[in-house]
Amino acid sequence: MGDLATTSLSIAKSNRKIEQIENDNTTLFGFWVYLMTDCVLFASLFATFVVLRNNTFGGPTGAQLFSMPYVLLETMALLTSSFTNGLALLSAQKRKVKQTLFWMGLTFVLGLTFLSLELAEFHKFARMGDSWTRSGFLSAYYTLVGTHGAHITIGLLWMAVMAFYIFKRGITRVSLKRIRMMSMFWHFLDVVWIFIFTIVYLFGALHA
Amino acid sequence: MLLSLFANLLGKLSLKQLPHDPVTAVGASMIVAVPILLAILLTVTKRWKWLYREWLTTQDHKKIGIMYIIVAVAMGLRGLADVVLVRAQQALASGNSHGILNASHFQQIVSAHGTIMIFFVAMGLMFGIINLIVPLQIGSRDVAFPFLNATGFWLFFAGMALINVSLVIGDFAATGWLAYPPLSELAYSPTVGVDYWIWSLEIAGIGSLMAGVNFIATILKKRVKGMKLMLMPLFSWSVLGSMFLVVFAFPILTVTLTLLAFDRTFGMHFFTSSYGGNMMMYVNLIWAWGHPEVYILVLPAFGAYSEVVSAFARKRLFGYTSMVWAIWAIVVLSFIVWLHHFFTMGASPDVNAFFGIMTMIIAVPTGVKLFNWLFTLYKGKLNLKTPLYWFIAFVVVFTIGGMAGVLMAVPPLDFQFHNSLFLVAHFHMMIVSGVLFGYFAAITYWFPKFFGFKLNERLGRYAFWNWLIGFLLAFVPLYILGFMGATRRLDHYSASLGWQPLFIVAAIGVVFIIAGVVFQFLQLVVSIWQRNNEGMSHKDPWDGRTLEWSLPTPVPIYNFARLPIVSTRDAFMAIKKAKLIDNRPYEPIEIPKNTPLSILIALGAFLFGFAFVWHIWWLVVVGFITTVLSIIVRSMDEHPTRLLSAKQVEKMEQSYKEAAV
Amino acid sequence: MSKKHPNHHKYHLSGNEPQDSEALVEVQEERPVLLKHYIIGFISSLILTLVAYIITINHVADRNILFIILALLALGQFLLQMFYFLHVGREFSPKFKLLMASFMSLVVIILVGGSLWIMFNLNGRVMPTQSQMVKYMNSQNSL
Q: What is the ipTM of this complex?
């Protein structure tokens, strides 16, 4: 009798474990659905940007404003951070705390570099008198690129909190799930940047 | 000095913003009085703790569903009050008489009516019923993300609160329910009305987005083992389609509203008439959301009709597979028709023709569904109860409205109907019959599931007939008036036009509708009164076919003590027919703990929105921090659930069985 | 309650970590991710980015042709990153992640394509050119 009870208890436990895995997978899927909604959000901003791109109202055009090497530098920083972010996830899956923290740290530094470059660019434009109130084109430019920047900021905050969490508690089921979500989020931001790089900057340069 | 600092602290807010004219003052005092009366009632009956523990902090989808419906019904009454004023104004304001409202106030009321009815009544009823039914139909113990679900509800509540605050302090948008620029830009609408509109919808919209993510994950990932997608009840299928539309359409609304807010608050130039703005882009974007929104509301109602028709014809639903495909055809097509809302904006005939044809095509899957329902009724053993009455009225009204819709899908004709009362009559016929009647039928049908007794049939029919007669009286004249050239949102017209008699008929229609609503409340009260009478109390009164009817009433917090075994459609019918007795041992069940953090997140959002309306920047920061901190605190919670042991589950199940005897 | 979970093969329950029993479970709804995926994804994205950059800076072709090439390069990089970084399409059936991504792409194509079609069509028909505007203003003055 006692034997049977222990067996059924252990079945219940392993069932619970499977339920937890399934819940984790559901959470990851839910997060993916959220990312898809964010894609549509960016798509609306892209459409608005393209529609307003030529409405400079006598203000500067994209080609006059943007410095292409600078933009390439930003792009490289973000692309590399997307790669190191993947390496962080791989290390986390192997439960290697130090390695995970190293790659996450590197991702954070690269992300922060990207954000600083972007903010410096905004600041430079605004100081020249080309703020978002200047024209429809500039409103759309600041809003599209700024929304991406806001996402990057959230990602950086999240990364910092996550790193602290891993440092304190190690890599558990819960933290691994969150690292996965964060990793998806960060890769997603790089995917959005491909289109900002192409549509805002490269197309902008061609319009000179 | 101190005074100016204080003025800065309050942004644009001042006592001057309190209402002055008598009509608004009455409305405002009602908005203030209702919460105060409720608070007094709760204090006297010592129910605060009960309210907090059982309702406000709950993560239980069934209770959240009921709260959605309560809010929606309350807002429905406000929307109805707006209608009374609009109809009274239009019935009176002909020739020398200027009616009871001034022009600006009239426009505010029309905007508020549209906004409230769509966002807080139709959406509220929809999410309420979805919350109540979907997890039960798919054999799940909970939704995928209970916390997200609760937060979505409270954001909906915060948006609702904000739109009602506008009645008390400041004003509301006088721009129509979609606030087209440049009218809604700061230059032409300098008061806070449009800001209230923006932030109320922004907050409620994000709540809807959360609910959408939650229900997609719930339906795709939390179905009971054995319930393949093609075995799912049609209501759940319709909800899945609707939620797909929510997650892909609502981000567009979020963006559009944000851009308008940026224009108004930060001096950007997205939709302004100068500095390179393009107001046509706003119209384009808002309808790219707006058209799917119609189907977001109507699809779950279609699903409810599918359940009702099959249950009351005592037959399996005709054409299940074609129904599913019709849903997905509608989901995709509803993204490709948005231009038909602005045929007259000046696009070339090619563009107009493309969207016109797409609009006609979308009528096809809708027609497929209609015929499937009729074939289900054909040769069924009809159990002619109120839900079926609502359905039959829906078929008639929806077909008339739908044919008017196909007319308007022809661009040259639309140039005649655009902005006229013909259009107003058309979309009310679609939305009231397709959405409101559907949810009335759904509530009557599922009411016994949650409360254990049926609604009074006779009073239900009185309500039905008053509603139907009132509705036709109110809207058929609008078709005619539209033909005669009456435009929408008219606060006054010349007596020589001869429109007044028809407007008076429409106003009489509203009187009938009010009688219908009174009968509905009477029905509820009488049904509670007679709940123990012979034949009223019943667990499975309609001989239900789907899993929700297999559960005890009220439904336990974990829904299913033993997960049901599903291998066919109409799973509960199969279980009943096979007379299956389930003797599997109980297992421990994980349920979410209560938490006040959802409310705190929504409170932060409310403060954020309110402060943005009035430019109180410190309060914007406070609201933002409240929300972010609540989210962080939540994410630090390692144990958001508690475990009911198998013994506890057994005990609870036993008590339900005893209660049933 | 059956001992064998129907989806048993998907999960890998290992028991070699002593400190936290919750940490033992490996989540495998997708095929495992390997280092080589990230490396392939990174290098190919790098190449595509640089190619796009160089052909733009040097204006190697006619503008309209460049627009098309750049769009294709971006699309290629998008697909590469979706596969190698976000692992779309690497799940076991049912591929709900892929389903959502496909539906999202459909909506984005309809939304962006449709909006641009409509708006540029309107621009051509409704927005007056500078000379038309001047003409109109003059006609108003003469009244």
A: 0.94
CB-based contact A140 B270, cutoff 8 Å: yes
Instruction: Judge if B560 and B623 occupy the same domain.
Output: no
pLDDT above 80 for C97: yes
Q: How far is A131 from chain C (nearest CA, A)?
A: 25
Q: Which residue in chain A is spatially nearest to B268 when comparing CA positions?
A: A133
C140: closest CA of chain A, how far (Å) = 23
Which helix (H) or strand (E) covers residue B346, if one does? none
As for how many domains chain B has, the answer is: 2
Return residues 78-97 of A near C (CB < 8 Å).
Answer: 79-80, 82-83, 86-87, 89-90, 93, 95
| Residue B37 forms part of a structural domain | no
In B, which residues are within 8 Å of C96 by CB distance? 220-221
CB contact under 8 A, B217 and A15: no
Tell me which residue range forms the domain holding B607: 596-639
Name residue A170's amino acid.
G
Same domain, B635 and B545: no
Q: CA nearest B550: which of B449, B400, B436, B399?
A: B449
- CA dist B257 and B260 (Å) reads 5
For chain C, give the number of residues: 143
- Per the CB < 8 A criterion, the answer to whether C56 and C70 are in contact is yes
Closest to B259 (Cβ–Cβ): which among A22, A48, A59? A48
Residue B581 phi, psi dihedral angles, 5° rounding? -115, 125
Contacts with B610 (C-beta within 8 Å, 6 or more apart), sequence order: B162, B165, B199, B616, B619, B623
Nearest to C104 among A40, A79, A86 (CB): A40
Mean pLDDT of B559-566: 91
- For chain A, what percent of residues have pLDDT higher than 70? 94
Cα B314 from chain centre: 29
Assess whether B564 and B612 both reside in one domain. no
**In this complex, which of B216, B252, B585 lies closest to A40 when CB atoms are compared?**
B252
Q: Are B249 and B293 in contact (CB under 8 A)?
A: yes
CA distance B320 to B112: 39
State the pLDDT confidence band at A6, using cuts at 50, 70 and 90: low
**Is B46 inside any structural domain?**
no
The bridge status of strand B641-644 relative to strand B589-592 is antiparallel
- Closest of B507, B509, B343, B475 to residue B419, by C-alpha: B343
What values do phi and psi take at C30, rounded to 5?
-120, 160
Residue type (1 letter), B445: Y
State which H helix or E strand residue B591 sits in.
strand B589-592
Instruction: Find the closest chain A residue to C130 by CA distance.
Output: A57
Q: Return the bridge partners of B200, or none.
A: none
Count of all residues that appear for chain A in the document:
208
* Mean pLDDT of the B227-237 span: 96
| B280/C118 Cα distance (integer angstroms) | 10
User: A25-206 maps to which CATH number?
Assistant: 1.20.120.80
The pLDDT score that the predictor gives to residue C19 is 40
Q: Which residues of C touch A11 (CB under 8 A)?
A: 1, 3
Answer yes or no: do B370 and B510 share one domain.
yes
Note whether B524 and B633 are same-domain residues: no
- Asked if residue B320 belongs to a domain, the reply is yes
**Where in chain A are the domains?**
25-206
Whether the predicted pLDDT of C37 surpasses 50 = yes
Neighbours of chain C (3+ CB pairs under 8 A): A, B
**B630 and B512 fall within a common domain:** no
Nearest to B299 by CA among B247, B369, B249: B369
SS3 content of chain A, % helix, strand, coil (to 5): 85, 0, 15
Taking only residues 214 to 273 of chain B, the set having a beta carbon closer than 8 angstroms to any beta carbon of chain C reads 216, 220-221, 225, 244, 248, 252
Question: What's the token pair of residue B181?
Answer: 């620029």
Q: How far apart are CA B212 and CA B218, in angstroms?
A: 10
What is the pLDDT averaged over residues B452-467? 95
Confidence bin at B295 (pLDDT 50/70/90): very high
